[in-house]
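ESCALATION

Customer reports they have been waiting on this structure for their group meeting. Please prioritize. Original submission:
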Amino acid sequence: MKLYDLKKGDKFRIIDEEPRVPPGAPEADPDKVYWFGSIDGMYSYCKDGDELVHFAAWTEVERVDETEK
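Update from on-call: job pushed to the front of the queue and completed.
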């Protein structure tokens, strides 16, 4: 699924092989779980814990169900 298909508050992992981020932004870590906030133009507003991260809106992601153990 694409990042822009998520709803605010969804948690996800990056599965895209080459995710796009703005110049100078932190790179994506496929092992981390991110929180989705919104899409603002071509980039997103997401968080990795307390750190703000921006991925391209068309990034391939996998939604994470926090209730699964």
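Sent to customer with the following note: The mean pLDDT is 92.
Escalation resolved.
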